[in-house]
Amino acid sequence: MSDAPSGARQPQDFERVLSASDKSVARFDRHDRSPLERVQHFLHSNPAAVPLIVLVVSVFAFAVVIGGKFFSAFTLTLILQQVAIVGIVGAAQTLVILTAGIDLSVGAIMVLSSVVMGQFVFRYGLPAPIAILCGFGVGALCGLLNGVLVARMKLPPFIVTLGTWQIVLATNFLYSANETIRSQDIEAQAPLLQLFGANLRIGGAVFTYGVIVMILLVALLWYVLNHTAWGRHVYAVGDDPEAADLSGVNVSRMLISVYVISGLICALAGWVLIGRLGSVSPTSGQFANIESITAVVIGGISLFGGRGSILGMLFGALIVGVFSLGLRLIGTDPQWTYLLIGVLIIGAVAIDQWIRKVAG
Amino acid sequence: MTKTALLKSTVFGAAAAALMAFTASASAADVGACLITKTDTNPFFVKMKEGATAKATELGINLKSYAGKIDGDNESQVAAIESCIADGAKGILLVPSDSKAIVDSVKKARDAGILVIALDTPLEPIDAADATFATDNFKAGELIGSWAKATLGDAAKDAKIAYLDLNPSQPTVDVLRDQGFMSGFGIDTKDASKIGDEDDARNVCHDITNGNEEGGRTAMENCLQKDPGINVVYTINEPAAAGAYEALKAVGMEGNVLIVSVDGGCPGVKNVSEGVIGATSQQYPLLMASMGIEAIKKFADTGEKPAPTEGKDFFDTGATLVTDKPAAGVDSIDTKTGTEKCWG
After folding, report:
1. Does A314 reside within a domain?
2. Among A148, B63, B211, B311, which lies 20 to 30 A Cα-Cα from B299?
3. Does one domain contain both B203 and B292?
4. In chain B, at which residue ranges do the beta strands (DSSP E only) sit?
């Protein structure tokens, strides 16, 4: 504009209505939020809240129905013992799913690691600490294989781990000849393998070392995921790998590190498994992959990556544990447990979809 | 001749030569047989395969082995039967994963003139196979039931019994062993084809284990929650028993509970000798398989089919009670003899 408008210019004819128009600045929160929207916002910013609420409600519901037999320190800590393995494997699964991947091989890696820990002592006569380190090495190696195939070869994680699941499981059976190492032999020769079966009693509550390590692991990963660069990068890679790449994150190195750490956590689960079973059994953990995915999904972690809290996974695993034991104490057919868990899974995903639609 | 054509004809020639070599070796052992097991990872089936292979080599039979991927995998077994028909086998030894669903495929094989013998698990109906070589699982359950009753003596009438079964679908072997135990212990089974319809107050808990240590431990924990006074534990197999023992040990109850089981695998028998398991009913997979191969050989030579055990609709390969604490009125062998005959 070359000639500045004079201050007292009269509005033109078609501009006269302007004086009556709205003069406020454009806003996006157009109206006060309804209570439902507030809930939606709250859940969006606290992804572990839904499973926590479901967990607390179900514990109280079973406590009312069953009474003291269920609502006792002993029973509640027993549930912790029963979910310890799934909780640890679920932590590995959480890391992978946060990167928008999925790991079907977690259970197989866990069992192979536990078999290696056992057989290296009993077949080759290695000292237990070395055998345990070898077990961790095998876990990391399996994770590295997954990671390289996903990150460098750019193969879909579902397909990669579908393949490695079979490969690792077959290796487990071939190597172990499906021989169980008996609890009594382990106790006599390599009690370190059963470390996580030992427990700490506080009144009626029984915490096995396996339970304690699960809680510590989840707490540690919660801190790492929320308060370290590596943890934030996990979320970034899962949310939008291209944006992460443009922001200077080395996406493929991140993915490989996630799968390797997932493999190491599975090996830890293998060690804890020996503590729980007493023995080394190559046939255990067949459904750990499905159970861990179930815990993650019920825990409100998005399968599309980048959203959710590892605490949710722990609550998800506990919900399954509470339902399994609670329904058994009521005395229902075990199929009802599976049916209800199925309902919970679909409910959890439906709620996740609804929360994602949050506005503003 | 171009380079590609030369390559093609070389490959073709090599293939033809290989094919001829193959047919030559096949005709050397003209009686073919198939062994189809549920899985090839369970030591029970590993032992079965060993027995079958040894016998087949001895009799000059060409044996091919197939297995499902997991217990319950019917599709792989159907494909295996089809391969055996196409292969022109004389006989099939089958451990059915799904004893009802496989029946149609078995019929196809029998229509093609193949002798089909069910091992370990009977088909439903049992006469869908030419013969069945199996453990009498009801008898196996009865043995440990009577042993537990005799061992407890007067205390048997106030016993609190936990049953650690196989899985929710109640397969025949699960039902037979569970109900056999009750019958041996003197509990009214009501409908003997169903677990869980009994009303005897001594049955305090039924839970499932999937037949492994993990399931055994969890099931035992659940049962102890229902009734901490449990003093007798029936288990579907020895891995489940080992898991149950760990659960009992965790609450310091391992000394005052009687655990009984079925199978007779080597780790199981060792657990009996160390007092982890009180008694177990031993079965003989190697015998099932080697007798199966003999039957196929006989069928191929003479056309004669194997006959069932007198008074039963299958051939009973036997079950023996293994314990180091024999009870009056119940025949048993000690763990030393049991170890000589154990599998896996």
Report:
1. yes
2. B311
3. no
4. 32-37, 62-67, 91-94, 115-119, 131-134, 161-165, 203-208, 232-235, 258-263, 279-283, 315-316, 319-322
